[in-house]
Amino acid sequence: MIPDEARTLLEERRAQLEETARTNEDATAVVELDQARIGRLSRMDAMQSQAMSAEIKRRNERELKAIAAALERLDNEEYGECIACGEEISDARLRANPVATVCIDCAEGRR
C-alpha cells in the first residue's frame, strides 16, 4: 500500500473515532440514584446504556492507540512489515485493517 494512502485511511479513521468520543461523553456519565425522578427500570436501562458506552469508549481508545502506532511505523518507514517474520503484509490486508502489524500467515499461526 502506498504510504500516503495508508496515512489518509488512518487519519480519516482517527477523525471518526475522535468525533465519536466527543458525542459519546454524556453517555458515560454516572447514573443518578434519585428514583423519584426516574423509575427503577429506566435507571437499569440507563446503567446498561452507560456500560455499553464505556465499552465503546475503551474500544475506541484502543483503536486510537493502534492508529498512533501505525502512523509512527509510517514515519519510521516500517509500515507494512510484519513484526513477527519481517515479511511484507499484503496490500489487501492493510486496506482491510490499516493497523495490522502481522501478515496473514503469522496471524493464523502458519509461520
Characterise the protein shown here.
The protein folds into two domains: 3-78; 80-111, no CATH class. It is elongated, with a radius of gyration of 19 Å. 61% of the residues lie in helices and 0% in strands. The longest helix is centred in the middle third of the chain and has 36 residues, at 40-75. The model has no long low-confidence stretch (mean pLDDT 87). It is mainly alpha-helical. Helix 1 packs antiparallel against helix 2. The protein has helices at 3-24, 40-75, 91-96, 104-107. It is built from four helices and no strands.
Short description:
The protein has helices at residues 3-24, 40-75, 91-96, 104-107.
Number of strands: 0
Largest sheet: none
Number of helices: 4
Number of domains: 2
**Mean pLDDT, all residues:** 87
Beta fraction of the residues?
under 5%
> Could you give the order of the helices and strands?
HHHH
Low-pLDDT runs: none
Shape verdict: elongated
Distance between the termini: 22 Å
Structural class label: mainly alpha
Q: Report the radius of gyration as a whole number of Å.
A: 19 Å
Specify the helix fraction band: 55-70%
Strand and helix layout:
Elements: H1 3-24, H2 40-75, H3 91-96, H4 104-107
Helix pairs in contact: 1-2
Key terms:
elongated; 61% helix; 111 residues; mainly alpha
